[in-house]
Amino acid sequence: MLLALCTYFLWLSTSDLLTVQAKDPDTDVSTSSSHRDLAPKNVDFAFNLYRHLVASSPDKNVFISPVSISMALAMLSLGACGYTRVQLLQGLGFNLTKMSEAEIHQGFRHLRHLLEKSDTMLEMTMGNALFLDRSLELLEPFSADTKHYYDLEAWATDFQDGTGASRQINEYIKNKTQGKIVDLLSKLDSSAMVILVNYIFFKGTWEHPFDPESTREEDFYVNETTVVRVPTMFQSSTIKHLNDQVLPCQLVQLEYMGNGTVFFILPEEGKMDTVIAALSRDTIQRWSESFTRSQVNLYIPKVSLSGAYDLRAILRDMGIADLLDNGADFSGMTREAQPKLSKVVHKAVLQLHEKGLEAAGPAGVMPNVKSEPLAFHFNRPFIVMIFDHFTWSSLFLGKVVNPT
Question: What angle do CA 210, 242, 212 make, to 5 degrees?
């Protein structure tokens, strides 16, 4: 069984955000109690997963959608039984003595609706699809619950025809992501029985776009011995920024046209691991309270990144060991002999470019100021974090080592 967690972040752009922590869910009547309890668990899981992935690929780019992975694993728990079910939910950070399974799934349902409906300025498509062999029949409780909480779509598939099955799945994902994720699966094993695909398509617009005329080829220092040339975007505008006195890094916060924010974090040379190890809700809160807003000359690479991850070893390290073992119990999914999960694959794509809302006016033009603005050059490995502030969700976490 292949669990394909496909995420796509199409156009990175940004909004008027008070910061991730600034919106108090207790004062937001549209935020349910279950959703309020879900949010911190999801963020903790996001940073935990991110650290494990970075540690497994220390010299490579990393880009994931943590909230998408959390939703897919929570949904998968509806088909798990016994200790496997407990492991999945505890691995996501939930204490089942303090929060019931019904509250967890209701929280994810509410979260999904908020992400899809709360902001008309952003275009976001989220969904799940289950491709199962024609010989299998889903159990009614699993089918009904996954449809209710996660809007799961199920499709009969002929896995004996590996080429036809992969074409069916690839076409589905291509259509759902508007052609931005293609050729997800190259060849399917005829022994495959169930494939779960979770996808997220996101498209936004910078509140203050970069001027394409200001983009120039610049050096990017991958490490002490490797320098690459990369198109680098520029703007000079009033931006939230911080030279952290606690952690060895600088950072800026940019905004979406809508419910979101982006943190670009530039660790000092050789201090990437130190900064990543310290990422937490408390760190984000401290940054949110410490930002200064002033004129900044900002240089960010025009990046296109993609990555595919087999999360088996990572999930095992995180305590979700039974997920892929022979003893894993997914008997709550189908009427026939329980399917075996063989892979957990996550794919994400990031494109950073100048696109913005034309009405926002040009960027990259220096105003008449008395002193030279501060300059932030993201010309060495950096971290990017993308949040939806209305739901307090970690949409994307990335580490850019080599933008080429």
Answer: 10
Tokens of 206: 């910078």
Mean pLDDT over 182-189 rounds to 80
Quick: pLDDT tens for 57-109: 899 999 988 999 999 999 999 999 998 999 999 999 999 999 999 999 999 99
Residues with Cβ within 8 Å of residue 362, at least 6 apart in sequence:
211
Is residue 155 within 8 Å of 172, Cβ to Cβ? yes
Specify the pTM. Answer: 0.87
Q: What is the pLDDT of residue 306?
A: 74
In the predicted model, is pLDDT for residue 33 greater than 70? no
Residues 6+ apart with CB under 8 A from 94: 41, 104
Is pLDDT at 195 greater than 50 in this prediction? yes
User: Token pair for residue 315?
Assistant: 């999930």
Q: What is the signed CA dihedral for 148, 151, 156, 160, rounded to 10 degrees?
A: -120
Question: By 3-state DSSP, what share of the chain in percent is helix, strand and coil, each rounded to 5?
Answer: 30, 30, 40
Cα–Cα distance between 404 and 402 in angstroms, integer? Answer: 5
* Cα–Cα nearest to 49, from 320, 362, 382, 301: 320
* Cα→Cα distances 188→165, 326, 338, Å: 7, 20, 20
Tokens 């240089």 locate to 299
64: which strand partners? 397
Strand stretches in 145-226, DSSP E? 152-157, 194-203, 216-221
Q: Are the C-beta atoms of 313 and 324 separated by less than 8 Å? A: no
